Amino acid sequence: MERFLICKNPKCRFVLDRYIDGKSLDGAHLILTKCPACGETWSTTCPSCARALAVKMVDGLPHSVCCDRRPAANARAA
Known about the structure:
Layout: E1 4-7, E2 15-17, E3 19-20, E4 23-24, H1 28-31, E5 42-43, E6 55-58, E7 61-64
Antiparallel strand pairs: 1-2, 1-5, 3-4, 6-7
């Protein structure tokens, strides 16, 4: 299972990291079935290039590793 989930809503793009302190929260996608910010469903692929989503934090904001850019202007992460 992928580490990151991203909201499918192009205006939201909330990013959920399923790891805390290096440990997987395997059931996170079952508990949070929809984005807490807008209610849209999750994706595991980068919205720009459709590769598996990998995220790095830059100045506290999520950026996709493959495209090296923020998924949306107001993207947040938890």
